[in-house]
Design goal:
42% of the residues lie in helices and 14% in strands. The protein is built from 9 helices and 10 strands. The strands form 3 sheets. A 4-stranded parallel β-sheet has the order 2-1-3-4, sandwiched between helices. It is globular. The model has no long low-confidence stretch (mean pLDDT 93).
Length: 271
């Protein structure tokens, strides 16, 4: 039986859907753990070394990149396959060098579908006997992801507002659906906003009639709650789906994306 190691949850979800019961699929980032902060244990470094295939995102988790230098495993680099876009593509004016690429590609279901196809191709090469199963599993997942993309396009097509305020800059790929993303903090969830950043967001909330500030599950919500309270508006959850938590253990990528869509429709007065 093939052994595949995945770096964090969206890559695990895709790989399990494509592999079915034919392959042993593990994940390096535990539920409730922030993927950006991952440090591999010696045991996990050994798992990477012994795997037949590693599905990861180059540049997102330095410890995984380092472990792969010691491994002979085949790899699928989701960053390369999905085609990352520069920071700021979600419509906000940011302080990033536009050479920086936004790693959160899985917010775009069609980019995640590309990763599914690449995983199917690689598994089919490693295990030709089950090639047709891997490819048909990937096709079924592609159909689910295409449907999800269509739901987002339809759900966000006719809204009173198109700007969302989020806790960190993880939602830029939703710009495809006409959203403008305004993050409180930067690319890393633990980045601190300046007083000027907060002042600008307060002005924006007033001028655009924004009703909701979105926090998330894997990082403390003080910033988003405080901003919402100061402005007298709602604080809600928008899940970046970087990993599952105790509250979302029974969910999967598709159900979490649909919950996010519902929250966005509600916040932006979509009909």
């Amino acid at each position: 039986q093939l052994t595949v190691v995945t770096a964090f949850y969206p890559l695990q979800f895709v790989t399990q859907r494509v592999a079915g019961d034919l392959v042993k699929v593990g994940v390096l980032t535990r539920p409730g753990q922030e993927p950006h902060d991952l440090e591999l244990s010696p045991k996990q470094t050994g798992e990477v070394a012994l795997a037949d295939l590693v599905v990861y995102e180059k540049g997102l988790q330095a410890s995984v990149d380092a472990a792969l230098t010691q491994s002979a495993a085949e790899t699928v680099d989701a960053a390369e396959v999905a085609g990352l876009e520069p920071m700021g593509h979600g419509g906000h004016d940011d302080d990033h060098d536009h050479g920086d690429l936004d790693p959160h590609f899985w917010q775009d279901p069609l980019k995640l579908a590309k990763v599914a196809d690449a995983v199917a191709d690689r598994l089919a090469t490693l295990d030709p006997t089950h090639s047709s199963t891997y490819h048909s599993n990937a096709e079924a997942l592609d159909a689910d992801l295409t449907k999800l993309d269509q739901e987002y396009a339809a759900g966000l097509a006719n809204c009173e507002r198109d700007t969302i305020v989020v806790s960190h800059d993880a939602f830029g790929y939703l710009g495809r659906y006409g959203l403008h993303i305004e993050p409180i903090a930067g690319l890393s969830p633990d980045a601190e906003p300046t007083p000027a950043d907060l002042g600008r967001l307060q002005q924006l909330i007033k001028s655009d009639g924004i009703t909701t500030v979105f926090g998330e599950r894997l990082v403390p919500a003080e910033l988003s709650h405080t901003l919402a309270k100061d402005m007298g508006i709602t604080a809600a959850i928008l899940d970046p789906i970087e990993g599952l938590t105790d509250q979302t253990a029974h969910d999967d990528y598709l159900s979490l994306m649909r919950a996010n869509l519902k929250a966005l429709e509600e916040a932006n007065g979509c009909r």
